[in-house]
Amino acid sequence: MSRENRLRLVLTQQPLAQLVPLVLVLLLGALGGPLGASSIVVNETVGMVCFPPNAGQLPPCPVPVGIDPALVAPNPVGTLRILTTSNNKAAISIRLSGMSPDMVVTAWFVHFPAGQPTPDPIFDPIGPGQPPIAMMNSPVAHSRASFTEGRGREPNGFRIHHNGRAHLLAWLDYNPLATGQVPLVNGMTPTQQTLAPAGSGAEQPTCCPDHPAGPRIAPVGGSWLRRFDPVTGYQMLEASGYPELLRSPSRPPVIALVVHTDSTTFGVLPGIAIPPFLINPPVTAGNYYLLGLFPLGPLGAP
């Protein structure tokens, strides 16, 4: 039986809630598909939990004071399923429920916890008061995915339906449960729109280890971090002929979901964070806040 007929048989005979896992298994296994004909190494499911100061607790998680109630999920529940293969590719399926309709949500690999020492010099600032070489977040997306920078649905973004449910399915050409795999985002030269007006919601006078203190320039987009030949100055190319990307030296400990309070997105950048430690006093800066985390630490461990 052909691959198409086998998929059609699955789709017509199984309940809707079971379709994605079964199709993933078919595509990842002997049938080939986006991740190739290879064996499944990891097939795990993990639920969404909260971040410090409520680390590990089930949602709803604390929301910064002053957020528009329409941008707050009443009873969010999230489930992540990840499959990795022997050729270091992966598929990630994230399902959400209990959300508010029309919320804009995106998914990100976080390379180290905010406020903690950087795990590698590539995440350090390039100088005093300067941005880092690489951002602490990378989008949950294929390295050749097309990003819209707010002009459409991002490959790491959710569309929240009227019933408060949403689903993201990401095919990855790398394995986020292995070291040296997740592409890094350029932190030095994001695309900037304008200086954030003093006292506005976009300004962030003090914040996070991945950005200098304000007044902040409002980012609207960015790019992956490329590898350059130190002699010629040209971009180095992979065997595929595509530019070679710099990869995280360690595996990300979590995937974070964020809610965009300005109801738009910024491509490979999440925007300007409203940090968890600004839960009280009221929010005065930033354009996204954390919805919850999916811990990756124990997944794929021998």
Mean pLDDT: 83
- Uncertain residue ranges: 2-22, 28-32, 208-214
Helices, by number, come to 2
SS-derived structural category: mainly beta
Number of domains: 2
Main beta-sheet strand count, sense and barrel state: 5 strands, antiparallel
Evaluate the radius of gyration. 20 Å
Q: What does the overall shape look like?
A: globular
* Order of helix and strand elements from N to C terminus: HHEEEEEEEEEEE
Q: What's the N-to-C terminus distance?
A: 36 Å
The oligomerization state is single chain
Strand content: 15-25%
Count of distinct strands: 11
Q: Which percent range fits the helix content?
A: under 10%
Essential attributes:
23% strand; 11 strands; globular; single chain; 302 residues; disordered N terminus; 8% helix; mainly beta; 2 domains; four-stranded antiparallel β-sheet; five-stranded antiparallel β-sheet
Outline the structure in words.
With 302 residues, this protein is mainly β. It folds into 2 domains: 1-33, no CATH class; 34-295, no CATH class. Helix content is 8%, strand content 23%. The protein contains 2 helices and 11 strands. It has helices at residues 3-13, 16-28, and strands at residues 40-47, 77-85, 90-97, 104-110, 137-139, 157-159, 166-172, 191-195, 217-221, 254-260, 288-295. The strands form 3 sheets. Strands 4, 5, 6, 10 and 11 form a 5-stranded antiparallel beta sheet that branches. A 4-stranded antiparallel beta sheet has the order 1-2-3-7, covered by helices on one side. Strands 8-9 form a two-stranded antiparallel sheet. A hairpin with a 4-residue loop joins strand 2 and strand 3 (90-97).
